[in-house]
Each structure stands twice: as structure tokens, then as C-alpha cells.
Specification:
Largest sheet: none
Radius of gyration: 21 Å
Structural class: mainly alpha
Strand content: under 5%
Number of helices: 19
Helix content: 55-70%
Length: 376
Amino acid sequence: MIWAASRVVTTTLVLLLARVQGANPWTAASPGYADFANIWDGRWYNIVAVAGYPSVLPVTIDGHVAENAWAFMPGYPAVVRLLMIVLDQPWAPMAVLVSLGFSLGSALLFYRLMLRVLDAPAALFAAVLFCVAPLSPILQFGYAESMYLFFLTLALLLLLERRYVLLFPVILVMAFTRPSGLAFALAMGLHLVQRWLGRQRDPFPVRERVVAASVAGFSAASGLAWPLIAWAATGSVTAYTDTELAWRSAYIGYQELVPFTAWFQSGVWWLGTPLGISVVVALIVGFTALLFSPPVRRLGVDLRFWLAAYGLYLLAVFFPQSSTFRLLMPLFPLLGAAAVPKNPVYRVALVLLAIAGQWGWLLLCWGVDGADWTPP
């Protein structure tokens, strides 16, 4: 019921924006819901679903690898394509249907996950925040986020329940839906160390050690699989990373991928020196402090391992710009910490702020104003 109510609110906001949307590279003016929900990267997923991936990388006029489909993993478009074939329907409505289905599953699993670390009322309110979060509109758009969050939430739930064997297929699908294998491998590695150090008070049998270590290795291999597949298909060892770097070239030009430099490059681009560097350092310190704050500590050590691992992954490879909001979505367990206070005024205000945030994000990142400045 919470999920359905939240979708009514979000759909209303999206339709209001669609009514005033002008003609753009993807749709005519005032598009219908399904068409409006499949602009921006939704078109790339559509291309993958119907045409696959290029065997020859496209290049710009100056010889650099251009933006292309290799940046978008096949899990989500494959599911939509299957539904297109079975139901004999076009991409746009089927993409919305798949995203909606996975968003419901994600909400239900997130509630189950929160019940592992919070009392029932707090877990339920955390699910409310998940459903109305500022970026929740993307859970019913032609993007892979809802499918990815479904499998990520399932993986985290299985980790907390220590059902390691079941993690293998979940990690595989997750890693081919959105880049995540390396971050989850780090979280599993931290989980292994924690269980090993605490084995005197919490037994860690040899069989569980072997299986858990195998899961960590499998997750790391899954995280590296897509770049290797891109290399095999195109003949370029850097096909995937060059493709990803093409998206930041509009900001800083074409550069090599040097881990842990992109946030500082972005800080300097947005704010200059030394303010940009100082802000990035402050963000790193602030996020680290957040992980040790009492509300976040209540989430338990394993969810905090994931938060730390994914935060470190973003710091290593991501160049912050307007899609940063979307890339932060896998940090959603933090909603559990925000759900702990029981003051009704606080909770109502938080929900209203989240819904206002939806409208703000739709205006800033989804609506097209003639300039490709803030892609979602």
C-alpha cells in the first residue's frame, strides 16, 4: 500500500512535468508517460535491447572513443527485451513495466532488510522513505536502477542472514545490471575479516569460511567480467574504460583513468583551486564520520561495510556531476538511520521534503530545457 501510494504521487509529478515538456531530442512536446520515462539513458538501454553492442568502437573526429552502448550493461535491457517478445509490445511501456515491478520488489525486500536491524515501526518508516525518496521517480523510468536495487537489496539481506551460497547467482545478475561486483567484493572481504576476528564469540566454521571467501572472489571476478567481455568483443583492452571516460570528456577533456583522482578533478572544475580540493576532502571526512555516527551504527556492521565499500568505489572511479545523485542511490541503507527518530513532526516533515526533492530532481535533471547540462 505504501509503494502504491508513493507511485501515485510520483506519477502525478511526472505527468505534470510531461505536460509542459517541450520538443526535445527524444520526444515531441507534451509526451505521454511511457515516452517521457524513456529519455536520456533510457534510449541507450533501448539500443542495447534491439541492436546489442558495437564490435567496432565509434570514435570522435579527433580519434577518441565516443559515447556508445558498452557503458550500459545487458541485464536490464535483456529482461525488457524478453518481455517485448513475449507480449509483442514496444520498448517504452515494457521498460516502465519492468522498472515498476522491480521497484515493488525492492521496497518489499528493503523492508525485510530493515527488520533485520531496526524495530518494526522504524523499518516500516524506512520503507516509506525508500518509496518517496527524491530519486524514486527513476524507479519507474527506463533505467536499470530499480532492477539493480532489487538484486542489491537481496544480496545484502542474504549477507545479513549468512546464506552465502545463494549469493552467487544474485551477485552475477547484479554485476551485469549495474557496476557493483568490485564494491560488493570489498564488503564481503570486510565481512570475512570481521567474522574471523570474532570467531571466538561467533563461531565461523571452515565450510562457511570457504564459501564466504569464494563469494568474495566470485564478486570480484563478476566486477571485472564486463570490461573483459568488451575487450574480447572489440579487440580493445580499454574498450569499457575508454567508453566510460567519454562521458566526462565534456567537462575535463579526454584523460586517462587514474583511480581516486576524479573527485578532485571534478572539485577543481566546479569550484576551482583550492576550494574544490577542500570540499572533496571535507566530503570524505564527513562521510567517514557519518559511518561511525550512532544512528548509522545501529544499522549493524555488515550494512556499514557495504556503505564504506561502495563509497570507496565511487571515490575511486566516478567523476561527480549531475548524475551523482543517481549514483548515490546504492547508499540507500542510510535511510534506515534517518528512520530511527519517532517524532511525528520530524517524520511528516521528512516525507514532505522527500516529495519536494522529487519535484526538484525532476526539474533539474529529468526535464529537458534545450541544453544537455544536467543529465540524470
